[in-house]
Automatic annotation (TrEMBL):
Required for accurate and efficient protein synthesis under certain stress conditions. May act as a fidelity factor of the translation reaction, by catalyzing a one-codon backward translocation of tRNAs on improperly translocated ribosomes. Back-translocation proceeds from a post-translocation (POST) complex to a pre-translocation (PRE) complex, thus giving elongation factor G a second chance to translocate the tRNAs correctly. Binds to ribosomes in a GTP-dependent manner. It is a peripheral membrane protein. It comes from the Bacteria. It comes from Swaminathania salitolerans. This is Elongation factor 4. It is found in: Cell membrane.
Amino acid sequence: TPLSQIRNFSIIAHIDHGKSTLADRLIQSCGALTAREMKDQILDNMELEQERGITIKAQTVRLTYPAKDGKTYILNLMDTPGHVDFAYEVSRSLAACEGSILVVDASQGVEAQTLANVYQAIDANHEIVPVLNKVDLPAADVERVRAQIEEVVGIPADDAVEVSAKTGLNIEGVLEALVTRLPPPEGNAEAPLQALLVDSWYDPYLGVIILVRIKEGTLRRGDKIRMMQAGSTYHVDQVGVFLPKMTPVDSLGPGEMGYINAAIKTVADVAVGDTVTLDRTPAAQPLAGFKPSIPVVWCGLFPIDADDFEKLRDSLGKLRLNDASFHFEAETSAALGFGFRCGFLGLLHLEIIQERLSREFNLDLIATAPSVVYKMHMTDGTQEDLHNPADMPDLAKIEKIEEPWIKATILVQDEYLGSVLTLCSERRGIQMDLTYVGNRAMAVYRLPLNEVVFDFYDRLKSLTRGYASFDYQMDGYEESDLVRISILVNQEPVDALAFVAHRTVAETRGRAICSKLKDLIPRQLFKIAIQASIGSRIIARETLGALSKDVTAKCYGGDISRKRKLLEKQKEGKKRMRQFGKVEIPQSAFLAALKMD
Ligand code: GDP
Ligand code: MG
């Protein structure tokens, strides 16, 4: 296929605006799958993704489209994740394409991630085709949303394509727009190979698979490839494309996207963003890659059953193969034993990994409070990154601490604006801008990330009945008056519950956690003090009264089997507990304790 008949594009949208539905329609109308093969939402194929309605990993599909001009085009579609935590994955999908379809729900209008995604697409030099989706809905207001796209997003929307991805209305309009409005890729089939390593994952049968976008040159089965930055070389066993099933081909030329299977064993060798070239005739320069993703939220994961430690290591390794943005390193906790300190792109990313570990790998885990990365400047002149509040040295040894800030964009109906502004200022936010998009307010705030990681989304959603949209980007580090708050249960510090907070909120948070723990920790046979402290100073205290009666006491005598059942149930419950000195703390307490209301 000549380059002039190839188009590479991404679909970008705010969550729920119909990106996956549109992608499925495009696949269906290009006949890539028969109706029978066409499962709902092919691109969101991870079970968890389907349930949560989000796209976690970027996927790619090659479509064949006979256009109105009589020529047949190859359309490579890269799906992109819709959640802010995965902004990094969006940027690398965009780097592999020349253009984007911007899907906007015509009944909702422009939202926070619409803006964030467009800015990324503009950064990637994309041609953008606006698509107004859900025109079948009575609430659709095409003219209003068209105006919003022009005014707020700042791109022309005169020839926005009006569609209903659900009913299939005007899908051809989208396909024609792709062909006529997006630029074809450029590149020379005879040049030395330069292929951008866009993604990699682990296939249980084939091993590590890498997804590439060929920029220059040609890649053939049997070639010996070299990773330009990693320096490693491999023999290419298979080259292929996604139709959307993996389908081997003989070669991939410039402008094409496809996969390589080369018996790569370790994911460390396949840094996403690296350039793949040929070993014998290498390119002079690697491509401009993208910045590596940096985990911004860390927490400890510990097996409930200490015997699961190796299984946990193994499972984390497997997850990492499919998710280069996820990091982990071994950690020991006085309270929780052997486990791992894990880094995530955000709180949703953390929840997803946790859920996958429990569902796919059958692991029962305790997660410690999420923490951001603080920069500590020590009095001896050294600098350290703090990933774990439990590791914070004595304040006397610290000259100053810096914490990460974000710039957040929130769109919300006027009636909820008051509570959103209150929430932001409670979280030490600084208002940067407040404007209107139609009847909605758009507030731009700078916020410390540490105030956002625990429960900001949840609070925002409940305050606005789910109507607010939110997006953020990292916005540098700033010095701050931070302290470490320790939690003591029965006089024993529980390192896994330690957290860092601004001095002004330390006492309130400490008190809230103690009172939560009082409800979360089951009564024991003795009285327990639950305390919060900064250094040796106690800032909050609750007392959990003693339990008086044995659970089996009420089935005295008679029913032995009922008694046994109760005891067994109690034993089952114990497995989900952790022993701290003489006290058992249920797993659920660890995260729940840190959610603030
Ligand atoms: P994504 O989060 O952007 O991938 O959005 P989805 O494709 O998962 O769609 C979100 C919801 O909107 C789903 O319930 C879809 O069925 C629905 N939806 C998508 N497109 C349309 C449309 O054109 N009309 C209507 N009425 N609903 C749609
Ligand atoms: Mg989706």
